[in-house]
Amino acid sequence: MYNRTSATLMLQTIMVLMENQNGTDVTNFPGSFGEVERCYGKYGCFSKGYPWTENRPDNYFPIPPESMAIRYPTFTRRNRKVPVFLQADNIDRIKNANIDPRGPFYFISHGFLEGGHKPWIQDMTNALLNQEGNDGASVMIVDWVGGSQPPYGQAVANIRLIGVMTAHLIHNIYEVLGLSNVDNFHFIGHSLGAHLAGYCGHALQKKFNLKLGRITGLDPAAPYFSKTVTMVRLDRSDAKYVDIIHTNAMPLYMSGLGISEPIGHVDFYPNGGSIQPGCGANAGGGGDLAPAVMRILGCNHVRSHEIFVETITPSCPFIAMQCASYEAFLAGNCTTCDQKHFCIPMGYHSYTMYKKLHDAGLVDTNTNIALFSMTGHNKPFCRVHYEITLKVSNTNASRTHGPESGKVLITLVDRYNNRSEHKFLDDEQKYYKPGDIEKKMIAVKDKGHPPLYVIVEWKYETNLFNPMTWRLLKSPSIHIEYLKLSSIEYNTDITVCPKLNKPVVANLPTIMKTKYCKFRK
C-alpha cells in the first residue's frame, strides 16, 4: 500500500497538474535554458522540441540511467521467489540467466510513484507463470522506482529513456537466444508504464528493425498524453497487437487519470471505462486519511490491472461487445455477436479472437475496435451479460390498474436452482404504463448455466410530491406480460411469463417461467 508521504505527493501532483491545465497557456521548460537536446551514449539523444511541448505544462530531459538504477528482476517457473536481475546491456547476465528460448517473454511495468515490488506485479507474474502452456515463460519486471518519483513531468520524461533501455534488453535477449523474431514478447504496462511500453516498441523498430508481438496498456496515463501525436504516446503502431483496458478515462479535474481516446487495435471500456463499480467513498476503507483518500482517487485507475490479472485465468468468458457507445450497450442495442458487433474476451486472451477476425479479413490492423462490458464491484470481477426485454401488459386488467412508478428487481435461477444476485433493471424508479416495452443490459455472476426461470419483484416507493405513486385503493403492482432474456455468453434466448397473467404485487416475489407463457393473451 502507499504510505502517507507517497499519497500526499500524489495528491499534490494532481493539484499541480490541475492548476497548470486550468491556468496559464505559458509552458515552463525546466532544465538548462536553451538546451533543446540531450544525449545518453548508446541510448541516443532526446529532444525537448516539438512534439514534446504539446499539451504539456512543463518539459524535462530524462535523468541519467545511473540515477534511476533501473532493474529487471526476472522470474521463471524455476525461480519464482528469488529473481535473476538483468541489466539492459549486460550480455553476460543474460547468458547466465538460463532463460528458456521457447518463451513466451513478458515484461511488466508499473507507473508513477510505484516500483517493481508492488503486490499486483507479483500477482500478475504468478498468474502468467501458472498459465497452461507457459512452461518456458520468463517474466521480466521493469523496475524504475528510481525514476518514477515526483515531479510528475520528470517521471514522464524518464520513461522515454527507460523505454529505449528496455528495447536494448529485448534486442540483447533476441541476439543471445538466437531468436528469429520478437513475436513472443508481450509488454504489459500500467499508467505511465503503458506509454513506456510504447516507447520500447517504437525504439525496437527504429534501432533494431524488430517489432514487438504485443503491448497491453492498462489504463494508460492521460496527463501529458491526451490529444498528443502518436510519437508521444502509446499507439497501435508500437506492436503487432496493442490492446487497451480503460478504467479511469475522464478529465483530471474529476480525478481521472486514464486516457479516453481509443489508441490500440482493440480498446476495452469496462463499465464505460471511467468509473468502476465499488470505487466510491467506501473504497477508502479505514485507517489514516491520506492513504484512504489515495485509495479513493486511485481505485478506478488500479482496477485495470486487477481486471487484467483476473483475465489470465478467468472465472467466466469476460466477453466485451463492440457498440457505438456504452449508453447504447446498456440500452440493449448490441447483443448479437456478428460482423457489425464483434465479441472479444477482454484482457489476456483477447488476441486469440482478434487473430481469428483478422485472418478472416474482418478487421484491419490500421483501424480500432472499441468494446464495452460490465463487471462486478469486487473480485471476481467477471460477469455474464443478459439483454432483458420487459413488456408491460396491455390487457383490460392492466389498463384498469393504470400506470405505475417503481423498480423491477429480478433474480435468475438455473436448472440446478442456483440463483444469481438480485438485479434492478433501473437504479431509479421508472414510470411504466400499459403496453410499454423496456430493454436493458444487466450483468450477473456466472453460475455455469443459463437461467431456466426468473423471480421478479416490484419495488414500490410512494412519493408525496408525485401523484403517480399514490395508491390509496389499489395494491402497488405491475402487470408484466413477459420478460425475454438474451444471453451474450451462452447465445441463448428464453421468454418467461407470470402464471395466469397475474400481476407482480409489491414486495411479493413472483416466479416467471416459459411454460406460463401459454396463458398470454
From TrEMBL:
InterPro entries: AB_hydrolase_fold, Lipase, Lipase_LIPH, Lipase_N, TAG_lipase. Residues 37-354 form the Lipase domain. It is found in: Secreted. Its main location: secreted. The keyword Ligase does not apply. It holds the Pfam family Lipase. CDD domains: Pancreat_lipase_like. Keywords: Secreted. Belongs to the AB hydrolase superfamily. Lipase family. This is Lipase domain-containing protein. It comes from Chilo suppressalis (Asiatic rice borer moth).
